[in-house]
Amino acid sequence: MTRVVVTGGSGKLGRAVVRDLDAHGYDVVLLDRVPSPDKPERVQFVRTDLGDYGQVLGAFTGVDDRYDHVDAVVHLGAIPAPGQVPDVALITNNVTASINVFHAARAAGIKNLVWASSETLLGIPMGEHHPPYLPVDEDFTVRPKSSYSLGKAVEEEMARHFTHWDPELKMIGLRFSNVMDETDYPAFPWDATPEAKTFNLWSYIDSRDGAQAVRRAVEAELTGFEAFVIASPDTVMDTPTIELVDRYVPDIERRADIDGVSSLLSSEKARELLGYAPEHSWRDHRA
């Protein structure tokens, strides 16, 4: 059985990832500062401060009475959005945690590392410097606009170099859209206030599909660094997407047909290389 450590496994996405990996037969170890409110019974919890390299290295090499090795790391532990703490505190916390995770995995000989990057690298939130074309994909240079997204850009750049140092290493950054779960869906759709969701082009990702993307990334037979956009195939709106584009972002180049309520964040690369196949939509939870 493959043992996977999940940092930040008590958060919204983390809980879905832990449940999904456990349901698919993985031996899961949850690392966080606080326990999960709905941890599966056989999942082990180890209280860990990701800001302390010694604790991270210890958690990756083995914990007495728990386990003696780790096969893969899923790194989700971070302050999840800008505005929650002062800017420098945010980037210091998140980048320190990530460099500790990356270095500790290397020291422990772990070759399989997946972590949460972000849609914010794609020119989000929307503004004067918007993405160069629609639908948005991974083919243009990242354009962070906040300390949060700058930290994600630093993480991806670090990953490129870590994989250059070790050609057997796989590091996959998943650029998740805004994570939602069933508790969020009573507020959908957002047609009455579309401006509230222009910041990320009305996109989202169901936490269960985000978890599927993580599992497929763990299982992918790839090496080197890769980044993938992970979004649901539909928007948070009932309004046809092309109407939203014409109204709010008419000047962005369009490189493909925009049909129905399709997302403007393309996950095609993840479909092709990871086998990502989203199964959930807020539309399944209409009252």
What does this protein look like?
The chain has helices at residues 12-23, 53-61, 87-107, 147-165, 207-219, 241-248, 268-274; strands at 3-7, 27-32, 44-47, 72-75, 112-118, 133-134, 170-176, 179-180, 205-206, 224-230, 253-254. The protein has 287 residues and is α/β, with parallel strands linked by helices. The strands form 3 sheets. Strands 3-2-1-4-5-7-10 form a 7-stranded parallel β-sheet, sandwiched between helices. Strand 4, helix 3 (87-107) and strand 5 (112-118) form a beta-alpha-beta unit. Helix 1 (12-23) packs across helix 5 (207-219), helix 2 runs parallel beside helix 3 (87-107) and helix 3 packs parallel to helix 4. It is globular. The model has no long low-confidence stretch (mean pLDDT 96).
Lay out the secondary structure.
Blueprint (H helix, E strand, L loop, with lengths): L2 E5 L4 H12 L3 E6 L11 E4 L5 H9 L10 E4 L11 H21 L4 E7 L14 E2 L12 H19 L4 E7 L2 E2 L24 E2 H13 L4 E7 L10 H8 L4 E2 L13 H7 L13
Parallel strand pairs: 1-2, 1-4, 2-3, 4-5, 5-7, 6-11, 7-10, 8-9
Helix pairs in contact: 1-5, 2-3, 3-4
Largest sheet entry: 7 strands, parallel
* Percentage of residues in DSSP E strands: 15-25%
Q: What's the helix-strand series?
A: EHEEHEHEEHEEEHEHEH
Tell me the span between the first and last alpha carbons: 40 Å
Tell how many strands the DSSP assignment holds.
11
Radius of gyration based on Cα positions = 19 Å
